[in-house]
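We were asked to recover a plausible sequence for a given structure. The inputs and outputs are reproduced exactly as logged, with field labels preserved.

PROBLEM: sequence recovery
POSITIONS: 285
GIVEN STRUCTURE:
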């Protein structure tokens, strides 16, 4: 295999230094592995737009809550390396949790943007994400970093963090990649049983129905949210964690307008899935 597997911070720093020395632009894709076509689209963009592309595979313990799925999160390194290589990634940084997160005393936190949606439902999650992404930005020093719109709150938070802390990196948002039936791709989809996989379709279908309502002139967030709620209630295995319509500051809105985000988190059985749609953008499913 040609893709270079790097497992220590020291070796990654050497790689970065060499790339900088040679004046190569670096594209960077952060992931937790268990790669699917959503990740592949980010990798391909990074490869196409930079001299070299690097990815991280790291299941970050400090972004998981005590009752979340850190232990059972899928870990599929061999298959991931093959996908990385096929996409043209030059190096995969795969550090140990021990080296990256144990015995650290400094954390990066973000205020208002985490006071809604997943930030409230997963306390400490974005502190864990911001801290680890900051460390990776420092170690890899990318020119461009690629984030999926699938994790829309994360994308806005990272953009704000980069602005606030003056990281010299350009954040590139990438479209949500979906299965042919509309389900947003996620590493957690592999937790779903065959029946749950069918049930999970209600998430994208409810978004579609609500957005059709909005496109027909509805501007009340409550009415649009209720439409999603009623659809999801039709599926007994589905339990709503949240449904919200927010602005780019992640605040609930009174009137729905372009660039607002319909965002939801839904449990299908024990699996928590998220999805969203940005109002005004084309619905491609
Ligand atoms: P994860 O491995 O889940 O932490 O995701 C790593 C990156 O891939 C994040 O920027 C995600 O937003 C992005 N991503 C995950 N699923 C998708 C998808 N279905 N479409 C586009 N990007 C995605």
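RECOVERED SEQUENCE:
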């Amino acid at each position: 295999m040609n893709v270079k597997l790097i497992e220590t911070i020291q070796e990654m720093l050497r790689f970065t230094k060499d790339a900088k020395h040679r004046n190569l632009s670096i594209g960077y894709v952060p992931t937790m592995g268990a790669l699917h076509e959503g990740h592949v689209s980010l990798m391909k963009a990074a490869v196409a737009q930079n001299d070299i592309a690097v990815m991280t595979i790291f299941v970050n313990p400090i972004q998981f809550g005590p009752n979340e799925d850190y232990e059972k999160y899928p870990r599929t390194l061999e298959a991931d390396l093959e996908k990385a290589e096929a996409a043209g990634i030059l190096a995969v940084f795969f550090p140990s949790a021990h080296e990256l997160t144990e015995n650290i005393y400094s954390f990066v936190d973000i205020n208002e943007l985490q006071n809604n949606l997943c930030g409230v439902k997963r306390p400490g999650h974005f502190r864990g994400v911001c801290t680890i992404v900051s460390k990776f930005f420092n170690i890899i020093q990318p020119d461009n970093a690629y984030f999926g719109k699938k994790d829309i709150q994360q994308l806005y938070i990272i953009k704000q963090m980069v602005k606030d802390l003056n990281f010299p990196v350009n954040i590139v948002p990438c479209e949500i990649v979906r299965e042919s039936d509309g389900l947003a791709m996620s590493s957690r989809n592999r937790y779903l049983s065959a029946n749950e996989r069918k049930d999970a379709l209600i998430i994208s279908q409810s978004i579609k129905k609500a957005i059709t309502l909005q496109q027909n002139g509805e501007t009340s967030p409550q009415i649009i949210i209720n439409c999603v709620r009623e659809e999801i209630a039709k599926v007994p295995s589905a339990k709503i964690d949240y449904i919200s319509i927010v602005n780019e500051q992640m605040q609930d809105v009174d009137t729905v307008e372009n660039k607002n985000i319909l965002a939801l988190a839904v449990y299908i059985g024990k699996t928590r899935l998220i999805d969203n749609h940005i109002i005004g953008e084309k619905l491609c499913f």
